[in-house]
Amino acid sequence: MIILGIETSCDETAAALVENGKTILSSVVSSQIEDHHAYGGVVPEIAARKHLEAIVPVVQSAMDQANIPTQDIDALAVTQGPGLVGALLVGFSFAKAFAYARKIPWVGVNHLEGHITSVFLNEKTPEFPYVALLVSGGHTSIYHICSHTECELMGQTRDDAVGEAYDKVSKMLDLGYPGGLIIDNLAKKGDASKIPFPRAWLDKSAYDFSFSGVKSAVRRYIEDTPDYKNRLSDIAAGFQESVVEVLTYKLIHAAKEKGCRDISVVGGVAANSRLREAITNEALKHGLRVHVPSIDLCGDNAAMIAAAAFHLLQNGQKSGMEDDVFSRAKSPMGQKHR
Ligand code: KG4
Ligand code: ZN
C-alpha cells in the first residue's frame, strides 16, 4: 500500500510517499525557518500563507522523486493536530480534496503519533511493549507503547517543552532561532562542569518534567555575569547537560519499571547529539535497545505521518469530509492516563 503523507502543522511543509508504513519512496521537507527568523519564533499567519504557497510544489516534488503515477497512490495521510490551526488547515483541506477527487481513503493523523511511529521507518524496529521519550518543540512526554494503536502516558512536562527551553535559552544568548542545533553545536566546544545548572528531578521516581527552572537559572547567570559572552559554550554545555541528564535518567527508569527491553527517542530534540550519546551509553549499561530516527526524520516530516497512517488504516480507521483539525494536544493512540 502506497500512502501519500502531508504535514503542515507548524513551520515545515512536507510531503512523502511511503510503502507499507516502512519504505520511504520520497520525502520532501520545505522549511519556512527563514521567513520567521526576524521574529524569533513562528508567526501563525505567515506560516499559513507559506504553506499555501508551498503545498502543491512540495507534493509535486515528492511525486517526481518517487517517480510513480498519481493512480498508484492508495491512500492519503495528513496531520490533523496538534498545531497551528491555520497551518494545519492547508494540509488538511489539500488532503480532503485530493482524496475526494481520486476516490481513495484518507486518514487524519495525530502529530505526536507520527513522531512516535518515526522509528518504524528504521530497519530494526522496537518490540512491543516499549517505552518512548517524545522530545520536541511542543512536547516532552514518556509513553509506554503497547501497540500501534495503544499507549499509556507515563509522564510529561509541567511547563516548557524541552525544545522550547532550547529555543528560549538560545534567544536569551542572542544566538538565533531555532536554538536546538545552535546550542548542540556550541556545547561541543564547552565544558559542562564549569557551570553546573540545577537538575529538575521533581519526584525522582516519577516521570514528569519541568524545564522552567533551568531556563531561569540560565537567565540569572546571564544577569549576574557581565562577561557571560566569553562563556557561551560553557553555558550551552551546562544547560544541555542538565536537561540531558534528567531526560536520560527518567527514560531508563521508566523502561526498567515497565520491564521493557526496547526504548525510543523521537521528535526534533532526538536529533541532539549529546542526548543520543547519553541515552545510548546508559542503555548499554542496562541492557536496553535504543531506537532513534535518522536525523532527517527527527524533525517534522511527512514520512512519519504516512507511516502512522498505514497502521491506522490497517486497524480500520478512516477520516470523513466532516472531520476537522484540532489545535491542542490530544492523546495519541487511544492513550490511557494512569
Ligand atoms: O519535532 P519538531 O521539529 O517540531 C515540533 O513538533 O515541535 O521539533 C522542533 C524542536 C525545536 O525546538 C528545535 O530547537 C529542537 O526541536 N531541535 C533540537 C535539535 N534540533 C532541533 N534540540 C536540541 N538539539 C538539536 N540538535
Ligand atoms: Zn513535531
Verbal overview:
β9, α9 (273-285) and β10 form a beta-alpha-beta unit. It is built from ten helices and eleven strands. The strands form two sheets. Strands 10-9-6-7-8-11 form a six-stranded mixed beta sheet, sandwiched between helices. It has a five-stranded mixed beta sheet with strand order 3-2-1-4-5, with helices on both faces. It has two domains: 2-116 and 297-337, Nucleotidyltransferase, domain 5 (2-Layer Sandwich), CATH 3.30.420; 125-292, 2-Layer Sandwich (Nucleotidyltransferase, domain 5). The protein is α/β, with parallel strands linked by helices. The radius of gyration is 20 Å and the shape is globular. 5'-O-[(R)-(carboxyoxy)(hydroxy)phosphoryl]adenosine (KG4) binds at residues 10, 136-138, 163-164, 166-167, 178-181, 184, 267-269, 271-272, 299-300.
Q: How are the secondary structure elements laid out?
A:
Blueprint: E1 2-7, E2 12-19, E3 23-31, H1 33-36, H2 44-66, E4 75-81, H3 85-102, E5 106-110, H4 111-117, E6 130-135, E7 140-147, E8 150-156, H5 162-172, H6 179-187, H7 212-224, H8 232-258, E9 262-266, H9 273-285, E10 289-291, H10 303-314, E11 336-337
Parallel strand pairs: 1-4, 4-5, 6-9, 8-11, 9-10
Antiparallel strand pairs: 1-2, 2-3, 6-7, 7-8
The chain binds 5'-O-[(R)-(carboxyoxy)(hydroxy)phosphoryl]adenosine and zinc ion (ZN).
